[in-house]
Design goal:
about 200 residues; alpha/beta; Helicase, Ruva Protein, domain 3; Dna Topoisomerase Vi A Subunit, Chain: A, domain 2; 2 domains; about 40% helix; elongated
């Protein structure tokens, strides 16, 4: 029975660790990379290794950036009356694609999940209240995924921000239960944003 060379198996095993990559896809990608020129492989390797060095988190909203502030926080025409709280930088991109939201964001980098030992202290909540007060924000949209973890995070935020003089809302129905905001289409997101519901 034929066995792949050790280096091939090592590459395949590393690719399988990526989300959405199974054994067959990892094998196909490994063969594809094997056919590439050495210069192309070195360029790919450099791009992978430099991602941690060249990318940091925005000091304001915790989105991805290569500077102190992300490109959104650098825009003077954004409406700071509204802050949209999302789980990940991918969610920011999804919301921006709708073209409907002109407020600012706050990226949590995770959701509360007791089963995974992820509590509020693991999220980037330390400066959210400070930003609300600094901007005199009138509304916070909690745009977490419609999942158990997303609901738990929304409930925590609702309680944490209850004493502040602002409107708390959540994206409307239209997002599939258990779905990821990042992968929702623009039309669904636009409708959910427009029909967001105030949290009582």
């Amino acid at each position: 029975m034929y066995r792949y060379p050790r280096a091939f198996n090592r590459l395949k095993a590393e690719l399988e660790k990526l989300p959405g990559i199974g054994t067959r896809t990892a094998t196909r990608l490994s063969f594809h990379l094997l056919e590439k020129q050495q210069d192309d492989l070195e360029e790919l390797a450099q791009a992978i290794t430099s991602i941690k060095e060249d990318i940091q988190f925005c000091q304001e909203c915790h989105n991805l950036t290569s500077e102190d502030l992300c490109s959104i926080c650098q825009q003077n025409d954004r409406n700071t009356d509204i802050i949209c709280v999302v789980e990940s930088p991918g969610d920011v991109i999804a919301m921006e694609k709708t073209g409907e939201f002109r407020g600012v964001y706050h990226v949590l980098h995770g959701l509360i999940s007791p089963l995974d030992n992820i509590g509020p202290e693991e999220l980037t909540l330390d400066n959210l209240e400070a930003r609300i007060k600094k901007f005199k924000t009138k509304e916070v949209i909690i745009a977490t995924d419609p999942s158990a973890e997303g609901d738990a995070t929304a409930l925590y935020l609702q309680k944490k921000l209850a004493d502040l003089d602002l409107k708390l809302s959540r994206l409307a129905q239209g997002l599939p239960a258990g779905g990821d905001l990042e992968y929702a289409d623009e039309v669904t997101l636009s409708r959910s944003l427009a029909g967001r519901q105030e949290l009582q």
